[in-house]
Amino acid sequence: MLQIRNLWKSFNKNTDNEIDIFKGFNLEIEKNKCTAIIGSNGCGKSTLLNIIGGSIALDQGEILLNGKDISELKEEKRSIHIGRVYQNPSMGVSPSLTILENLSLADKKGEKFTLRKLIKKNKIDKYVELLKELDLGLEDKLNTKVKFLSGGQRQCLSLIMATMKHPDLLLLDEHTAALDPKTSTVIMQKTKELLNKYSITTIMISHNMKDAIEYSDRIIMLDSGIVVLDRPSINVTEEELIQIYREKLVQIVA
Ligand SMILES: Nc1ncnc2c1ncn2[C@@H]1O[C@H](COP(=O)(O)OP(=O)(O)OP(=O)(O)O)[C@@H](O)[C@H]1O
């Protein structure tokens, strides 16, 4: 379980450009469930994920992962427990390395190793099995550099890399937003299969209301760093969410 307690975060503090994103924000994310976070541009979704993942420091507050306060842990240390897939298919993978090297790196997360001893021959069968499940033929391209893969193939690889060590938490930051609709559906299906298989506690940011409802257990809508909707996904409709967005937009324009 993830608990965020009394989170405060501002950017450009004490300047004319100061933005207060979170002012005493609290949230609990249930174990083994997928929670979708939606909300209009700039409401603080990515900032929240960056704070949880450790790439942005919080000003005040606590982040507890399975009861342990991780708010002071460096990003590399957190990444042993937290997997992440980004919007940009080039992040989360090393494009100039091969598929095999990328998978080996992900497998070594949290361990000390030398590049010369990166690839363990006895692990290759395991990687081939993981790739076969994707059904994209990537198991025949182990020595292909990742920069030669399509965006969708990279996101699939990124997903495998983020989940192969069964992290305590998975952060999906609009991970299908840069893909065409067909590939996006394939990645969402793969995501669902992996989450069901490993029961990983997941936070998924999405601007796609349909996906957010279909693939999550719970929907949270943020607005200016505040939770304005928090419901089981089965009790929310796409029309309802679009209506709330419209009302917010009218408030902003008025
Ligand atoms: N490193 C930063 N320095 C200064 N301002 C930042 C920084 N990161 C985010 N912000 C600002 O904080 C606000 C929230 O940004 P954030 O990226 O969390 O929004 P978001 O809800 O993820 O938006 P989107 O849906 O467009 O991705 C925005 O006004 C953004 O410009």
Automatic annotation (TrEMBL):
Q: Which keywords label this protein?
A: ATP-binding, Nucleotide-binding
One GO term in the molecular function aspect is:
ATP binding
Name the domain of life: Bacteria
Keyword Nucleotide-binding attributed: yes
Q: Which GO terms describe its cellular component?
A: plasma membrane
Q: Where is the ABC transporter domain?
A: 2-249
Q: What is the name attached to this protein's record?
A: Putative ABC transport system ATP-binding protein
Species for this entry: Proteiniborus ethanoligenes
